[in-house]
Amino acid sequence: MAKILICDDESGLRSIIKRYATFEGHEVLEACDGMQAVEISLKEQIDIIIMDVTMPVMDGFSAVKKIRKTSEIPILMLSACGEEYNKICGFQLGIDDYVVKPFSSKEIMMRVNAILKRTQKSSKPDRKHNYEVFRKDGFEADMTAHKVFIDGVQADMAPKEYDLLFYLIRNKNIAVPRGKLLNEIWGYDYYGDSRTLDTHMKLLRQSLGPYAGLITTIRGLGYRFEG
């Protein structure tokens, strides 16, 4: 059972999601604006936040920015806007997933459970990887310290960019299918909008700058890190 915070100014929408969440055995807290969500996240041990973007008092993006200063609580963002700019803004702030309205409560809970499963898995120590530090020319990825350096300058990347990059490095020189990446990084296999991967790959390549070419697109399959 997880403790879920649902933040949306529409009480009806909160009630619908809450009904599905409690049916699955989760505990649910509610907030009607971003400020309330920030306050609750500081007081309660929240496992995941479902956050709307457009709300009074404080919008979802501003709330995520404040929450990320003190916590890495998984955040699933809801929005009526499906523009890539809004998705990129959310992912750069460190959200875990982005769902465009209208949606089904079943879809929301599948995504929530996938995120919870992934975060629980990632919290366990993993000693099977051999490449904890990877260097090539002016590129360095320290997977133990969770840092990336571009020509000696530390890169500022979103959490999912690190996850995606480190997974590709640990499977370097192997063509990794899109479905495998979605399953390993986001915890779902092509469920919903697979463009989530495309958006993160675009952000990751921007962060890598002159070393973006280390990641090759394999048309019709996925991606490969050239090690």
UniProtKB/TrEMBL annotation:
Query: InterPro entries recorded for this chain?
Result: CheY-like_superfamily (IPR011006), OmpR/PhoB-type_DNA-bd (IPR001867), Sig_transdc_resp-reg_receiver (IPR001789), WalR-like (IPR039420), WH-like_DNA-bd_sf (IPR036388)
User: Which segments constitute the OmpR/PhoB-type domain?
Assistant: 131-227
CDD domains to which the protein is assigned, alphabetical: trans_reg_C
Q: Which residues carry this modification: 4-aspartylphosphate?
A: 52
The Swiss-Prot or TrEMBL record marks DNA binding at 131-227
Determine the domain of life of the protein's source: Bacteria
**Cross-referenced Pfam families:** Response_reg, Trans_reg_C
* Domain annotation Response regulatory: ranges: 3-116
Task: Mention one GO biological process in which this protein takes part, according to its record.
Answer: regulation of DNA-templated transcription
What UniProt keywords are attached to this protein's entry?
DNA-binding, Phosphoprotein, Transcription, Transcription regulation, Two-component regulatory system
Instruction: Provide a Gene Ontology MF annotation, just one.
Output: transcription cis-regulatory region binding
Instruction: Please give the GO cellular component terms listed in this UniProt entry.
Output: cytosol; protein-DNA complex
Report the coiled-coil segments.
Answer: none
Q: Which PANTHER family match?
A: DNA-BINDING DUAL MASTER TRANSCRIPTIONAL REGULATOR RPAA, REGULATOR OF RPOS
- UniProt function note: May play the central regulatory role in sporulation. It may be an element of the effector pathway responsible for the activation of sporulation genes in response to nutritional stress. Spo0A may act in concert with spo0H (a sigma factor) to control the expression of some genes that are critical to the sporulation process.
Protein name (database record): Stage 0 sporulation protein A homolog
